[in-house]
Amino acid sequence: xxxxxxxxxxxxxxxxxxxxxxxxxxxxxxxxxxxxxxxxxxxxxxxxxxxxxxxxxxxxxxxxxxxxxxxxxxxxxxxxxxxxxxxxxxxxxxxxxxxxxxxxxxxxxxxxxxxxxxxxxxxxxxxxxxxxxxxxxxxxxxxxxxxxxxxxxxxxxxxxxxxxxxxxxxxxxxxxxxxxxxxxxxxxxxxxxxxxxxxxxxxxxxxxxxxxxxxxxxxxxxxxxxxxxxxxxxxx
Length: 236
Hints:
The protein is α+β, with helices and mostly antiparallel strands. Helix content is 25%, strand content 31%. It has 2 domains: 6-64, no CATH class; 67-204, Gcn5-related N-acetyltransferase (GNAT) (Aminopeptidase, 3-Layer(aba) Sandwich). The strands form 3 sheets. It has an 8-stranded mixed sheet, sandwiched between helices. A 4-stranded antiparallel sheet has the order 1-4-6-5. It starts with 5 loop residues before the first strand and ends in a 5-residue tail after the last strand.
């Protein structure tokens, strides 16, 4: 991969640890991005938020670890098999990332219920679509429906030989169905049917409860010191 210019943002409050600052390195805004280039960048620890591609560059901290798993090697746990069976009545539909009012209202309910104190709880329509979609990346929305009601949406980026789980939101009243887990399992199965080598799951943070769950999906690999290594569930 050729050299790509990066810019550092200003240190700011970390969203995961209250006593720390965070800092991100962004791909220079004038750089022309496409799905093929992003597929290379994600392998080196980058993620996208809308059209912006970044990776953590925090002084004295390397807690955020990019993760991925090989779909064909995935072994579901007993609990994951129960979640999959529980949601056998859900219909999944792949659609484009164009704005849909029904998706946005579901996203608002999810944010206000799960992250009421976060900045995204007050997202408007523009904030929402700019966060999840991208003008240059090959992405899809997956609608999860029950009795013709959309109860969840997952966003995936699709590459030639891999995919990336971007974000999932769901109806808070269906929390007992573990729809977050189900969405990951569905994406693993989809990646398997497409014969993808990898499914990227985002950053794992061992000492942060809401980000440590990713080692529940095994065998999981993490990018540590620029090397992909196995992350065992026992390390949580």
